Amino acid sequence: MTDASTSLPGRVAVTGAAGVLGGHLVRRLLAEGCEVRAFDRRPVPAAPGLLPFTGDIRDRRAVTEALDGADAVVHCASALPSYPAADIRSIVVEGTTAVLEAAHATAVPRVVHISSTAVYGLPKLVPTPEEHPHAPVDAYSAAKAEAETVAERFRAQGMRLPVLRPKTFLGPGRMGLFDMLFQWAEEGRHFPVLGRGDVRIQMLALEDLGDAVLTVLRAPDEVACDTYNVGAAEFGTLREDFQAVLDAAGHGRRVVSVPGRPAVAVLRALERTRLSPVYGRLLHKLLADSYVSVDKARERLGFSPQFSNRDAILRTYDWWRGQRTTAAASASASGGPTSTDPWRQGALGLVKAFF
Predict the structure, then answer these.
(1) Mind giving me the DSSP string for 67-122?
(2) Is the backbone peptide bond immediately before 9 cis, with ω within 30 degrees of 0?
(3) What is the pLDDT of residues 8-32, one digit of tens each?
(4) Average pLDDT in the 69-98 region?
(5) Is residue 309 within 8 Å of residue 146, measured between CB atoms?
(6) How far apart are CA 208 and CA 166, in angstroms?
(7) Confidence (pTM)
(8) Which pLDDT does position 268 carry in this prediction?
(9) CA-CA distance, 13 to 102, in Å (whole number)?
(10) H-helix or E-strand containing 26?
(11) How many angstroms separate the CA atoms of 81 and 255, rounded?
(12) C-alpha span between 106 and 300 (Å, rounded)
């Protein structure tokens, strides 16, 4: 990453501050000397320089209280793809609307909206540029696309509003599918991939996403107020990335190919019966190349990620090995599913015996 062009805002509000990304940003901003106004439905631990606010992201009054007096907002609060469709739309779209209305009412100078490359759906064009149209394929991608439409409306009205579209990010606290990979690796099992596993799936290190956020917070308006993809610049195939974890586990296990079409049919059936955590869009992503162009962020923002896919996944595995007991305990007390929770493997847990 290149040197920042300006200093960070003095007071920054972070929504979703108890989540993986939000928590990471809170710590980074505090370390940089910022005053942080941390908003989440879950209590945020006290720290010097931190002012916590607890409330629902859809409650405009509560959000307005948290944003009042902030020099910038980073809107990280979101829903998981596994939530019911109505909840996803409510949290993502209504929540984003409440944040932007509150930011407008309190005259916050800059709002960074964390979106997702899910807005592209399942694009056949790779690397996918920012100009690719929205093509949502499920409730999550549709909500993310609609939230961006809301953001574009506020930007058109004069709000200084950068939008970041990250790929799936990995880092301390991030669980999901990777928790299953890490568990199987630690137990000395082989790990399956659909087909040959030769598809290229771009990911992103949490630290790099944090760097991207700080970059747009520092950047001048004419550069920051745009939409940027954020993803690893170096990435290999899914087979290579998964094998790196199995090698790190030290049991001599291998990534094993399973026939793609039959496996997809079985996983779809399990998804419909809620016996598998693997959702439809993820299935399709595992069967085809999925990566975006990061040229715009490099050329306009001067932003270049530090970590490759392999770096990100192995650093997360190292964290998982050291913290899995603590993580499981905190997840059980979190008051609802979050991206820090281990996946309930469902019927997939029964398949382990064959690997």
Answers:
(1) HTT-SEEEE-----TTS-HHHHHIIIIIHHHHHHHHHHHTT-S-EEEE--GGGG-S
(2) no
(3) 999 999 999 999 999 999 999 999 9
(4) 96
(5) no
(6) 10
(7) 0.89
(8) 67
(9) 12
(10) helix 20-31
(11) 26
(12) 29
The structural architecture, per CATH, of the domain 11-236+287-354 is 3-Layer(aba) Sandwich (3.40)
Phi-psi region of 335 (alpha: psi -120 to 50; beta: other; left: phi over 0): left
Contact assessment for residue 114 and residue 57, using Cβ atoms and an 8 Å cutoff: no
Return all residues near 314 (Cβ < 8 A) that are at least 6 apart: 244, 245, 248
Give, for 271, the enclosing helix (H) or strand (E): helix 260-272
Task: Give backbone dihedrals phi and psi of 331, rounded to 5 degrees, phi first.
Answer: -65, -40
Q: Which residues pair with 72 in a beta bridge?
A: 12
Helix 238-249 to helix 309-332 angle (10° resolution) is 60
| Dist. CA 260–CA 197, nearest whole Å | 9
Return the bridge partners of 258, or none.
Answer: 194
3-state secondary structure 183-245: HHHHCCCCEEEECCCCCEECCEEHHHHHHHHHHHHHCCHHHHCCEEEECCCCCCEHHHHHHHH
Say how far apart CA 189 and CA 345 lie, in whole Å: 15
Instruction: Encode pLDDT of 176-215 as tens digits.
Output: 778 889 999 999 999 988 888 999 999 999 999 999 999 9
Between CA 228 and CA 193 the distance in angstroms is: 30
Q: Which of 241, 257, 235 is nearest to 185 (CA)?
A: 241
The Cβ of residue 149 has, within 10 Å, a number of other Cβ atoms equal to 12
Query: What gap in Å lies between CA 25 and CA 76, rounded to an integer?
Result: 9
pLDDT of residue 282: 61
Encode 298-330: b = buried (16+ Cβ within 10 Å), e = exposed.
Answer: beebebebebbbbbbbbbbbebbeeebeebeee
